[in-house]
Amino acid sequence: MGNPRLVDSGKADMAFGMAMVGHWTQKGTVAFDKPIPSLRALVGGWDQYYLVPLGAGKDSGPAMDKFLQKDKPNTRVVLLPRGGVGSVGGLQMLQLMNSGEDALKQRGGSFEFGSFDAIKGRFASRSADLFIQVANPGHPSISEIAQNHAVAFLQPPQAVLEEMSKRYGWSIATMPKGTFPNQEQDVRLPGTTTTLFASTRMTDNMAYTVVKTICEKTDRLQAAHKALAKFDCASGVWKEEVNGLPLHAGAAKYYRERGWLK
After folding, report:
1. Is residue 262 part of a domain?
2. Do residues 182 and 85 share a domain?
3. What's the CATH code of the domain at 15?
4. Structure pTM?
5. 3-state secondary structure of 59
6. Average pLDDT of 156-161?
7. What is residue 226's predicted lDDT score, i.e. its pLDDT?
8. In which band, very low, low, confident or very high, does the pLDDT at 243 lie, cut at 50, 70 and 90?
9. Beta-strand relationship, 130-135 and 48-56
10. 3-state SS assignment for residue 18
11. Confidence at residue 228, expressed as pLDDT on a 0 to 100 scale
12. Which pLDDT value is given to residue 225?
């Protein structure tokens, strides 16, 4: 969440971020009180993230609205500290489901913001009902919770997914069954991808060189990190919906040379 400001101020030349955060910077919304027009995308689509709602109790859900309104109307929600993408996204989702902080507290529920270790402890002591976090496949903390405790991967209503996309710039992505331990069904969730971005301070030549290097040495990236196994520059990494940001002119030059960008 802080990287756009670092790049805009010149404290970093380029940074990784998430596509929907880029969308927020262009609109001047959510965590940004005004637009940041200087930011430009280089390469998007590095890996897939999901906003995962994890409910306590194997027999809970899988419908998230049923979980919140009938199974656990006084839900005890645990989130990472305020300001991170996971907690912001979790609060957005809950607000759209009439279970924001005020509404849930009126039903006897609660919110707690803490570390991964604290959250894992809450599941171990059965003092938490719902954890929402943005995660890529195999995320260690979610994997640990799902492996060691009876949980359900909850399914948000389609209307909520559509509103998360329309209002906040999340995509809608299917998290295949087996992505995490004991996940027995596909789940459609708000999603986003990682993007590498810079600002208009970066020269066109530098942006071109960065993108060319990444796209022509992808095999070395994939060998370095298994999360990049499916990364492929030909798959639309230049698209604004994949980046949440307009494309840097130097990056666009390379994509045009390859025939990917018209």
Report:
1. no
2. yes
3. 3.40.190.10
4. 0.89
5. coil
6. 97
7. 78
8. very high
9. antiparallel
10. strand
11. 86
12. 84
Q: What are the C-alpha distances in Å from 118 to residues 71, 72, 80, 122, 127?
A: 24, 21, 9, 6, 11
Roughly how many angstroms between the first and final C-alpha of the chain, as a whole number?
Answer: 31
Distance of alpha carbon 104 from alpha carbon 99, whole angstroms = 5
What pLDDT, on a 0 to 100 scale, did the predictor assign at position 19? 95
**Domain of 139, in residue numbers:** 49-191
Please indicate, yes or no, if residue 68 is contained in any of the structural domains: yes
DSSP class of 69 = I
pLDDT digits (tens, 9 = 90+) for 20-45: 999 999 999 998 999 999 999 999 99
Q: Which residues contact 252 (CB under 8 A, 6 or more apart)?
A: 238, 261
The span from the CA of 240 to the CA of 134, in Å, is 21
Gyration radius (Cα) of the chain, Å: 19
Instruction: Say if CB 78 and CB 112 are below 8 A apart.
Output: yes
Backbone angles phi, psi at 135, to 5 degrees: -150, 145
- The number of folded domains in the chain is 2
Q: What distance in Å separates the CA atoms of residue 239 and residue 176, rounded to the nearest whole number?
A: 24
Looking at the fold, whether 23 and 55 belong to one and the same domain comes out as no
The predicted pLDDT at position 172 comes to 96
- How would DSSP label each residue in 156-186? --HHHHHHHHHHH--EEEEE-TTSSTT--S-
Three-state SS for 212?
A: helix
Q: Does residue 104 contact residue 110 with C-beta atoms inside 8 Å? A: yes
What would the pLDDT profile of 80-105 be if each residue is shown by its tens digit? 999 899 999 999 999 999 999 999 99
Q: Is residue 241 part of a domain?
A: yes
Domain end marker among 163, 191, 219: 191
For residue 208, being part of any structural domain is answered with yes
Q: Is pLDDT at 60 greater than 80 in this prediction?
A: no
Q: Which of 191, 216, 233 is the last residue of a domain?
A: 191
Tell whether 113 and 186 lie within a shared domain: yes
